Structure formats: C-alpha cells, structure tokens
Predict the 3D structure of the following.
Amino acid sequence: MARLKLKIDGMACEMCVAKVEEALKNKGVSDLSVKIGSATCTYDESSVTEAQLVEAVVDAGFPAKVKKGLF
C-alpha cells in the first residue's frame, strides 16, 4: 500500500469535496480524507497508479497534482 497527497485547485464548497471523494473512491482508495484544496489517501499500487488517481480528480473537473513531502 502507498500513501498519496494531492493538491487540488478549483474546489470551493462541500459539493466539490463530495465529487473528489466519489472520483477517488471509484478507484478503490482507502483511508481517504478530502478537504477543500487537498486530498490524502492510501492505495494499492498493484491496482492503480498515482497518475490514474490524479486523472480521476481531473476528470471530475478539478486540476490536481501530486504533492510531495510530509503528510
């Protein structure tokens, strides 16, 4: 299992949070926490890649990138 933190732009409300949560849950992540502007989760590297998780958030309508560094 790997840990991922995303910086997400364009989020302004709880509906945005819900859309990002749904997009990431559909990719099978666990230990998910989404706040306006960011998300952290745990994922199975054998099932999904960082790029696929970023793409899921982008497809939900929010520019996103992996945030490196401390969680």
Q: What stands out?
A: The CA atoms of residues 28 and 63 lie 20 Å apart. The longest strand covers residues 2-8.
